[in-house]
Amino acid sequence: MRLLLVEDDNHVAAALSAVLARHGFDVTHARSGEEALRALVPEGAGFGVVLLDLGLPDQDGYEVCGKIRKRTSIPVIMVTARSDVRSRIHGLNLGADDYVVKPYDTGELLARIHAVSRRTAHEDAVGAGGNALRLGSVHIELPTRQVSVDGIVVQLTRKEFDLLALLAQRPGVVFRREQIISEVWRTSWEGTGRTLEVHVASLRSKLRRPALIETVRGVGYRLVAPAA
């Protein structure tokens, strides 16, 4: 897989590139946001994943993520020292597929790269249903992967849509955290749990229906169907 590493620290980039190369990745290193955007022309330039550091010298990493998402659907993993939930949600809202906090374990990073790179097969499976789901004012079009609330389209990331579609196909049923991670992230790696929490929080915020997704303590989540 070709991987674009966006990192302004040459020492960090060199060490990480060496590790990724040993695991079979063809790494291209971009030292700035502008260099990264040029590398993605035309139409993603064949990259499978973008590792995006937020502390870039020429522009904010969040801004770069937004520009990448407007140009291509390549999975983006943000890599940053900003660990607060608000920063994570902001990154996901801009279209990031995952968020890794420094310092991180190399095994963790590799697991996340493999998880997001498998998204296409899952998206095709989700979209193959050929129908729509309606939950009160929330309307979910599976084939087009479009969600609207009160007739207004809501922009969701790929994983947010996959998560919502999974829960919405069986309203009232409790999905275990492990099951959600397996079906949406296509991995059994336990460290993805924190990412799941952030995606649930982001969905509640975007849909403006915080009670729609209920946390079942110690088990997982379920979608609460609105009363008729």
UniProtKB/TrEMBL annotation:
<feature type="modified residue" description="4-aspartylphosphate">
    <location>
        <position position="53"/>
    </location>
</feature>
<feature type="DNA-binding region" description="OmpR/PhoB-type">
    <location>
        <begin position="130"/>
        <end position="225"/>
    </location>
</feature>
<dbReference type="Pfam" id="PF00486">
    <property type="entry name" value="Trans_reg_C"/>
</dbReference>
<feature type="domain" description="Response regulatory">
    <location>
        <begin position="2"/>
        <end position="117"/>
    </location>
</feature>
<feature type="domain" description="OmpR/PhoB-type">
    <location>
        <begin position="130"/>
        <end position="225"/>
    </location>
</feature>
<dbReference type="Pfam" id="PF00072">
    <property type="entry name" value="Response_reg"/>
</dbReference>
<dbReference type="InterPro" id="IPR039420">
    <property type="entry name" value="WalR-like"/>
</dbReference>
<dbReference type="InterPro" id="IPR036388">
    <property type="entry name" value="WH-like_DNA-bd_sf"/>
</dbReference>
<keyword id="KW-0805">Transcription regulation</keyword>
<keyword id="KW-0597">Phosphoprotein</keyword>
<protein>
    <recommendedName>
        <fullName>Sensory transduction protein RegX3</fullName>
    </recommendedName>
</protein>
<dbReference type="InterPro" id="IPR011006">
    <property type="entry name" value="CheY-like_superfamily"/>
</dbReference>
<keyword id="KW-0238">DNA-binding</keyword>
<keyword id="KW-0804">Transcription</keyword>
<dbReference type="InterPro" id="IPR001867">
    <property type="entry name" value="OmpR/PhoB-type_DNA-bd"/>
</dbReference>
<dbReference type="InterPro" id="IPR001789">
    <property type="entry name" value="Sig_transdc_resp-reg_receiver"/>
</dbReference>
